[in-house]
Structures are given as structure tokens and as C-alpha cells.
Amino acid sequence: MNRGVAWPALWLGIIGFGILYVPVTVMVIYSFNAGRLVSVWSGFSTKWYGELLQNEQVLDALGKSLWVAVNAATLSTIFGVLIAIAFVRYGNFRFRLLLSALASTPLVMPEVVTGLSLLLLFIAMEGTLGWPAGRGIDTIIIAHTTFGMCFAAIVVQSRLRDFDMSIEEAAADLGATQPYIFLSITLPVIAPAVVAAWLLAFTLSFDDLVIASFVSGPGSSTLPIVVFSKVRLGVTPEINALATIMIVLVAASVIAASTIIYRNSMRRQNRT
Hints:
By secondary structure, the protein is an all-alpha fold. It has one domain (55-271): MetI-like fold, CATH 1.10.3720. It contains eleven helices and no strands. It has helices at residues 3-30, 47-52, 56-89, 96-108, 111-129, 137-160, 165-173, 178-207, 210-215, 223-231, 237-271. The longest helix has 35 residues, at 237-271. The radius of gyration is 23 Å and the shape is globular. The two termini are 29 Å apart. The mean pLDDT is 84.
């Protein structure tokens, strides 16, 4: 690349990342502020983290968020693996284009539209089937699974495309059944991609605010909903501390998923 173009692009990148990460860094720093005023530094203190541990509303919302994220990530990964296998293994089957469109739509659809459509679906189901009886944790898990499985399918699908089918064919020739082949051969090979897909779906579910706001009900507020409701009343160091904890959890999940994907890609390159 021409240096005359590279330097402006580099500086634009630095400015862009600065706009994104400088406010986050300031928020993390002020979460250790001893004073209550978020704009005035009064000294270093961890007391706001201690107060969070005594806040029952926050702890309850954190527990619900973790429960929702774990279940939604697990279901998303299972459905994502099935979708990936269908696309990679069975080629141009009937209705492939329709299934591909259905699997990709949640990736580009605005969250407001997704949340509203799911809310209308749950209301219609409650009126006709009697389930779900109101909105709660179950409806949030279902909603998060609908878009989480699309991301999981993309991650697993990229790994399956590089899988050597001759290994499965050899096992089949030796009399192995399809379930045995999948559990003993295919799954161990794609395991890094499956774990990365689970971590990605977990992060997306744990962070979600918009869709959860539509499909949640009384007594089922997740941590992002609680944070948003508190911020509307004013930003406090306690909110900064809570946001910092969320950043750490999400960053750990993203780093773990990125590390798994990177090691998996490097391992494939070394084999070739």
C-alpha cells in the first residue's frame, strides 16, 4: 500500500478506536472513584464493587442473565451445528435457498423488528395454546436462541467445510453407524468451532438489551435491563462498577472464542 494512503488510514483507525475505547476506559477508571460524583475524582476505592455484592436486585439480575445466556448458548450451538451440517453435508437439497435465507435473516434484521415480532408471536401463542403464560425467562431464552443459532451456524459451518470427508467414509466402510461417526470422529474435530460458537452465543445473549426488553415480563429483568433502568435515573460509580464487570465477562468470552478460532486456523494451516 502507498505510504501516502497508509498513514491517513492509520490515523483514521486510531481516531476511530479512540472514540470507541476512550470513553470505556474513562468509565472503568471512574468505577474506582471514592466519591459519588462521577465527574470528580476523589481518590481510589473499591467500595462500589463491595456495594454491588450487597445489592440484591443486581445479583438477582446477574443470576438470571447467566442462566439465560448459558441455556440460550447451549440451544443455539445445538441448532447451529445441525444447520451447518445440513448446509455443508447435503449440498443443494430441496428448499436450501429458503432455509439459507431463514438462517441468515436474523443476522441483518434490526433488533427492534426481531423483538417486536417475537413479542407478537408469544402473545398469539398464549391466546391460542395457553403457552407461554406471560413473558419471562423462557421467552427470553427462546428469543436469544433464534438469533444466536445463526451466528453459531456460521462458525461451525466454516470448520465443516475444511473437514476431510474421507475419514467418515472410511469409518462407514468399516461398519460404523452415523451416530457413532459423528460422536467419535466429526465432533472431536469440530469441537474448537463448537466451543467458539457457544462462547459467541453466550456473549450475544448476555449483552442483549433490546430483544430482552420486548419479550421479558415482571420479575424477569436481565442485567442489561437493570443497568439501563438505573442509568435513566442518573449515572453513579456503582453503575460504572457494574458495567466494568460486564465488560470483563464479555471480553473474557470474546478473547477465549477468538483464541480458539485462531489456534484452530493455525492448526489447519500447519497441516496443509
